[in-house]
Design brief:
This protein is of the alpha+beta class. The chain is built from 16 helices and 14 strands. The strands form three sheets. A six-stranded mixed β-barrel has the order 2-3-8-5-7-6. The radius of gyration is 31 Å and the shape is elongated.
C-alpha cells in the first residue's frame, strides 16, 4: 500500500510540473465525461418514453398469451377462462403484485369494417372499457365523441384515418365481419361512439375498439381472451417479474396452455429500435473517447520523452524498469480518474439543472414523428441511473489505462547509462 501511495504522489507531482499540458488533456476528458452523461441520460430517457408509449399502445410490458398466438394472431389461439384465472392469480402473488400497475384483457381478431361507402381491413380489439382506460392512452386521444364506457354494448371506437376512409363519424353505423371461433363468418353491427388520433398511421387506420363482452359474443369466444396485457412500475423490472410469473405458471406453461412474453419478445420492432439507438450512442462515445485517448497518449508520451534523465536517476537509485513503467501508468490513470470524476459530476449537474424537466426539441418538426410503432415525444426527460454512472467511470478508467500502456512501455525501455547523459 505504501508503494502505491508513493506512486500516486509521484504521479501527481509530475502532472503538476507539466500543468498546462495536463490541464488541456484534463479539459478534453472533462468535456467527454460531461457529454457521456448528457447523451446517456437523454438516451435512457428517450428509450423509457418509447417503451412506455409502445407497451401502453400494444400488449404491455408483459404479455400473457396462448403459446402460438404471437405467430398466428388467430382467435383459435386464445386463453381459456381457466388459463386466464391462473394468470390473474399468479399476478396477485407476493413479489409480483407490488410491481403490477395495470392489466387489461384483450380479445383481438382481424376483421373487415364496412360502411355504405366501402370496406377496410382492421384489427378489432375487444376491451374492458374501465381496465383499458387505465392501461392505455388511447382514451386520451379522442378528437370526436367519447371513449367506450362500461354500459356500452354495440359501440365502436375507431381511428381517424379509418373514419375518413369510410366516411363515418360518431353516430354512424359500421358492420364488422370476421371469422369466429367455430370457423364461421360472422357479422356484428356497431355504432361509432368516438374517433381518435394517435399519430401512428397503422393504428389510426386499422384499429377498432369494441366492448369485450360484445366481441366475445360475436366471435363465440365466450370469456376467453387472446392477451392479458400487464404494465409494471418500471421497465428494468420486467425480466425479474417475467421469471417469477413463469415459475408461478409452470404447470399451464408445461401443458402448452400459456406463454409469458416480455415486451422485447412481443414487440421485436421496438426492441430493435432501442438496440439500434443504443449502438449509435455507443459508437459516438467510442469515437469521442478514442480522440481523448490519443490526447492522453500524447501528454504522457511527451512527458516520458522529456524525462529520460529523471527516469535514469530513479533507476540508478533502485527503481526497476517495471516500476518506472508503473509510475508512467499511474500518471495516466490518475489524470484520467480525476478529470473523469469532474466531468461526470459536471455532466450530472448541468443535465439535471438545465434539463431536469425535459429537453424540448419540438422546433425540429412540424407534425407527429413515429418510429417502430410509437409516437416520439418532442420533450425528452433525462433518466439518471447509478449503473450508468458506474459504467461511465469504468469506461473512462479503461480508456486512460489503455492510453497509458504505450508510454509506460517506452519508459521501461530507457537505458540508464544513456539516460544519464541527458541534461535537465
Amino acid at each position: 500500500m505504501s508503494r502505491i501511495l508513493l506512486m500516486a504522489r509521484l504521479a501527481l507531482r509530475n502532472l503538476r510540473r507539466q500543468a498546462r499540458r495536463s490541464m488541456l488533456t484534463a479539459a478534453a476528458m472533462i468535456v467527454g465525461g460531461g457529454l457521456l452523461i448528457f447523451s446517456v441520460s437523454l438516451g435512457d430517457g428517450t428509450h423509457e418514453d418509447w417503451i412506455e408509449s409502445g407497451v401502453r399502445t400494444g400488449s404491455g410490458h408483459i404479455a400473457i398469451q396462448a403459446p402460438d398466438y404471437r405467430i398466428s394472431r388467430k382467435i383459435d389461439d386464445r386463453l381459456g377462462p381457466g388459463s386466464l384465472a391462473a394468470a390473474r392469480s399468479a399476478l396477485g402473488r407476493s413479489g409480483i403484485a407490488e410491481h403490477v400497475v395495470d392489466m387489461a384483457p384483450k380479445l383481438a381478431s382481424s376483421a373487415l369494417a364496412s360502411s355504405p361507402i366501402g370496406a377496410r381491413p382492421v384489427q378489432v380489439i375487444g376491451v374492458d372499457p374501465s381496465a383499458e382506460a387505465r392501461f392505455s392512452t388511447l382514451d386520451d386521444k379522442v378528437i370526436e365523441g367519447r371513449y367506450l364506457e362500461p354500459k356500452d354494448r354495440l359501440a365502436a371506437y375507431i381511428g381517424v384515418r379509418l373514419a375518413e376512409q369510410l366516411e363515418v363519424d360518431p353516430g354512424s353505423r359500421l358492420v364488422l365481419t370476421a371469422q369466429d371461433a367455430e370457423g364461421e363468418i360472422a357479422g356484428q353491427l356497431a355504432r361509432v361512439v368516438g374517433v381518435f388520433r394517435t399519430g401512428i398511421p397503422e393504428v389510426d387506420q386499422g384499429t377498432v375498439h369494441i366492448p369485450l363482452g360484445t366481441a366475445g359474443s360475436w366471435l363465440k369466444a365466450d370469456d376467453a381472451v387472446t392477451t392479458l396485457a400487464v404494465v409494471v412500475d418500471r421497465s428494468r423490472a420486467v425480466s425479474g417479474i417475467t421469471r417469477q410469473l413463469r415459475d408461478a405458471l409452470a404447470a399451464p406453461i408445461a401443458a402448452g396452455d400459456v406463454s409469458v412474453l416480455t415486451w422485447r419478445e412481443a414487440m421485436p420492432e421496438l426492441d430493435a429500435a432501442v438496440k439500434v439507438d443504443d449502438l449509435g450512442n455507443y459508437l459516438f462515445q467510442g469515437i469521442t473517447f478514442g480522440i481523448i485517448g490519443l490526447a492522453i497518449v500524447n501528454t504522457i508520451l511527451m512527458s516520458v520523452l522529456y524525462r529520460h534523465r529523471e527516469f535514469g536517476v530513479l533507476q540508478a537509485l533502485g527503481f526497476t524498469p517495471g516500476q518506472t513503467g508503473a509510475l508512467v501508468m499511474a500518471e495516466g490513470v490518475v489524470l484520467t480518474v480525476l478529470s473523469g470524476l469532474v466531468g461526470i459530476g459536471a455532466g450530472l449537474f448541468i443535465t439535471w439543472f438545465f434539463w431536469r424537466d425535459g429537453l424540448d426539441i419540438s422546433f425540429t418538426w412540424q407534425e407527429d414523428w413515429t418510429f417502430s410503432g410509437v409516437v416520439l415525444d418532442p420533450v425528452i426527460v433525462p433518466l439518471f441511473r447509478t449503473a450508468r454512472v458506474v459504467q461511465g467511470l469504468v469506461f473512462i478508467l479503461l480508456v486512460g489505462t489503455l492510453a497509458s500502456l504505450y508510454p509506460a512501455y517506452r519508459a521501461t525501455r530507457i537505458d540508464v547509462a544513456e539516460a544519464m547523459k541527458f541534461e535537465r
